[in-house]
Amino acid sequence: MKKFIPNLLMAAVSFSSLEAMAATDLVLFNGKIFTADRSQPKVQALAVQDGKVLQVGSDAQIKALIEAGTRVIDLGGKTLMPGLIDSHSHAIFGGLERVSANMEDEVVDLDELEKRLRAWRDDGKAKHGDVLSVAGMSSAYWAQSEALGKTFNSGEWASVPVVFTGSDHHTAWANDVMLKRAGVDAALIKSLPAAEDGTIGKLKDGNPNGFLVDAGWDRVASKMPAPSAADMLKAAQTAVSYNNSLGITAWMDPAANAAPGQPVFALKPTEKTVGVLPVYKALSQSGGMTAHVAALLVANSKSVPADLDTLDKVRQQFQDVPNLTLPGVKIFADGVIEYPAQSAAMIDPYSNSHKQGELLIDPKRFGELVSAIDQRGWRVHIHAIGDRAVRESLNGIEQARKDRQSGVAHSITHLQMVNPKEFARFKPLDVIASMQLLWASADDYTTDMIKPYVSALAFRYQYPAHSLLKQGATIAGASDWPVSSPNPWNAMAQAITRDGPLGALNADERLDRETMFYAYTLNAARTIGLDQQIGSLSAGKQADFIVLDRDVFSVDIKALHDTQVLQTWFAGRQVYAATL
């Protein structure tokens, strides 16, 4: 034994020496570097070794690490920051839409819409099997459901299934051919349970008018032709490359066990409900996963704790896939607020219907479900648009916190309407506000399809980012792509100004740019459960970073909005370079 100890010491010394001798792979200096590490937020230079941050500091400190084999880059004063993180993105669905017919929320007259559908039919972009489908439709069209019917139920469309899907992904319009395929008729509407009342629009004679929302849309979506495996892989590749071009190196996919056509709002998962997870796995195996994906599994809103065993069986099928984690569960608490859908759950009834929307969760049992999720160490991420949905979501998380202090960060996303009584609850309950602040704009949506139908108090506190921040809430950046653009620079600028075509949407709720930079870096990393691995340029974390074409800390807001990413690096390897 006495002879063995020196050998152990010699081995330890040798290993230590080799570690010290390991070459610095990359040094970037002469930059304006934002680290998102509050102990050292701004530095000049960065050193990378084995795909991880070795050290940050001054030019002199980092240049001292340069060795014979080190790649050295002079940033020339350019700005560098951590790779950005989107805490709510249906990226593969976004990738599908980028290669398909898409109105991108533009509103045109029906003659022009018909002209575009005809062109997309002819070039194949609208073709999905025998169905013609156009995505990205503005909710403004749904008030014209009968007019849509007169155009797209006659002439050249009379025998062709046609579907227009809303940019919100909760609403759609389908012509009679498609409705018939889905079994949607007057008899079905008459037989709908109370919970689904209003999810299928109807004419005065009781027949459907084509408008669909949530559960109604699920019925038609389930009859849409499924994309091929090749189409799905292409969509994933498109999504990753597009996100990388925007500086995004990680995101949370909040419905990864749902595939196109599956009824996501009323999803009843089985262990075979794997959604887009096989696509992420195939992309990872091909070496194309140049982003971290935190994939959540949708649980039915009425799930009970025992149902989590089924979701765990899905999780076990996708363990140890590089750059893919499965940290938790997504639950829908309600729908959307815009007229005519009005399925968001509100405290005060809508002025036109005198209804409170649709609360999808059961307030009496929801806390039990959230606590069971928390007990497993999983995150819960809750879709809540209306103020009642937000309140009941917080109540559910509060039950979990009473049962135990797990340290697991949960989140609520969207948060379009939040009653002021809830602001102070986020911090003590450790609930992250995952917000799509690109939506915080005074425009036709807010003034025409929301304001006339909700209380003055609810309308005032739309996307109350500053009120939440003031009470200590953690704000995380999110896009909900393809509901809206995944461009984080557009969202940051909008969060700072809240300006729109019709003025500012409650200027008191504006945020500062540093808050938004943390929202898309360290805060978002914590939301997706990877803050120990990414989110800041701290020693030991993965070297995900971006180089920008301007100093985002000093440029005006218009210039911030137009920020371009010059380079994106993932694990110390350049994965995107702008074409200059």
The share of residues in extended strands comes to 15-25%
The beta-strand count equals 26
Major sheet details: 8 strands, parallel
Instruction: Catalogue the unreliable spans.
Output: 1-21
**If strands are numbered along the chain, what order do they take across the biggest sheet?**
8-15-16-17-18-19-20-21
Tell me the distance between the termini: 65 Å
Structural class: alpha/beta
Topology-level CATH name of the domain at 91-221: Diaminopimelate Epimerase, Chain A, domain 1
State Rg: 25 Å
Per CATH, the architecture of the domain at 91-221 is Roll
CATH class of the domain at 91-221: Alpha Beta
Helices, by number, come to 20
Shape: globular
As a percent range, the share of helical residues equals 25-40%
**Average of per-residue pLDDT values:** 94
How would you summarize this macromolecular structure in one to three sentences?
The protein is α/β, with parallel strands linked by helices.
Question: Can you characterise this structure?
Answer:
- With 580 residues, the chain is α/β, with parallel strands linked by helices.
- Among the domains are: 4-82 and 541-577, Urease, subunit C, domain 1; 91-221, Diaminopimelate Epimerase, Chain A, domain 1 (Roll), CATH 3.10.310.
- The protein contains 20 helices and 26 strands.
- The strands form five sheets. The chain has an eight-stranded parallel β-sheet with strand order 8-15-16-17-18-19-20-21. It has a six-stranded mixed β-sheet with strand order 3-2-7-24-25-26, with helices on one face.
- Strand 10 (131-137), helix 5 (145-152) and strand 11 form a beta-alpha-beta unit.
- The longest helix is centred in the first third of the chain and has 18 residues, at 4-21.
- The protein is globular and about 80 Å long.
